[in-house]
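[recover] target loaded
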């Protein structure tokens, strides 16, 4: 039986002033009642549009933000209300790779100090052993040990992200959360970093949680996918199920928006009108109903529950069965990022471990 390493139970996060002096400020409903479990050793993806709350959710899972309500369990232990001191031993096991590698690396510190800091902080090594560990980590992520005395601005974007990954690995974590880890990189460099993360997962027995909006990335490195919309999970399933038989209209629209390599290939598209509603005033009922082409009166008045369909699959839609039977959920196995797929195949064939330039 697969062990659960991390579990979210009804997580809610609201941003806004609670003091009387700032009571007129609107409350931002960033995450609303999110629940799921991550299995040890898997790659779990959280996807959605910008502003849907996925990065906030990732930080809630790591206790970098305090929850408004709900619980976070790590390896069966409730860590929601732990103090900073009590969390410190767990920080070693739970690490984050940031979206912008340049902004997340201290410009006044050398690479050696950046990677060596968590080693010293958690008392893992000192002196010569610490320097050797830093050199080993640099080699692990495909960089030269001689880079220890350089600064972050001397590297390319892909190299900086490798440094960020090496820093995350320095504390010997069990869980690694990547917050859009490749979105700031060129497509060819994305493939290198994706290959690196996949290799590290196998070599170090890591559990990965990947926050992303690029479904092409998710297709090639995830086991299960949670689709978020305006702070809520609308569908959760295996990556194959999501790409081949998406059930929620929002999931279908996301997949149909992915460009395909053949310009003459036409497929039906689900029209989504309007912009993402403001999280300060989310719509009643189903939050997707103002943009959903299948919305009815029930959608505007009643919030759909998460229906469990077996094999861990969930969907929150009143009419997903009717939509599916009507052809709106036709298989979209070809809906992937062609450029990324080509690059991945190329780099896997070459087994490239060289640093990007």
């Amino acid at each position: 039986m697969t062990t659960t390493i991390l579990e979210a139970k009804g997580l809610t996060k609201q941003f806004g002033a609670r003091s009387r002096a700032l009571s007129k400020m609107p409350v931002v409903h960033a995450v609303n009642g999110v629940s799921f479990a991550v299995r040890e050793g898997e790659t779990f993806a959280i996807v959605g549009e910008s502003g849907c709350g996925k990065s906030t959710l990732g930080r809630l899972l790591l206790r970098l933000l305090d929850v408004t309500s709900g619980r976070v369990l790590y390896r069966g232990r409730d860590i929601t209300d732990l103090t900073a001191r009590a969390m410190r031993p767990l920080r070693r096991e739970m690490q984050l790779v940031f979206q912008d590698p340049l902004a997340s690396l201290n410009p006044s510190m050398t690479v050696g100090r950046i990677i060596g800091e968590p080693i010293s902080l958690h008392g893992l090594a000192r002196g010569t052993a610490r320097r050797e560990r830093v050199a080993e980590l640099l080699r692990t992520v495909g960089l030269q040990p001689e880079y220890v005395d350089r600064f972050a601005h001397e590297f390319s974007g892909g190299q900086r992200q490798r440094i960020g990954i090496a820093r995350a690995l320095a504390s010997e974590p069990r869980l690694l959360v990547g917050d859009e880890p490749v979105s700031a990189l060129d497509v060819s460099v994305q493939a290198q970093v994706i290959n690196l993360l996949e290799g590290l997962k196998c070599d170090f027995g890591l559990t990965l949680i990947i926050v992303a909006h690029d479904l092409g990335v998710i297709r090639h490195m995830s086991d299960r996918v949670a689709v978020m919309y305006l702070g809520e999970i609308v569908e959760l399933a295996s990556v194959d199920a999501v790409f081949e038989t998406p059930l929620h209209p929002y999931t279908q629209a996301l997949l149909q928006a992915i460009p395909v390599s053949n310009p003459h290939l036409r497929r039906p598209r689900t029209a989504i009108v309007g912009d993402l509603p403001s999280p300060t005033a989310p719509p009643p009922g189903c939050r997707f109903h103002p943009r959903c082409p299948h919305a009815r009166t029930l959608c505007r008045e009643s919030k759909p529950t998460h229906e469990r369909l077996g094999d861990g699959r969930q969907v929150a839609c009143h009419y997903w069965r009717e939509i599916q039977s009507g052809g709106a959920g036709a298989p979209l196995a070809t809906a992937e990022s062609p450029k990324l797929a080509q690059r991945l195949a190329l780099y896997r064939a070459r087994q490239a471990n060289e640093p990007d330039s």
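[recover] notes: The chain has 13 helices and twelve strands.
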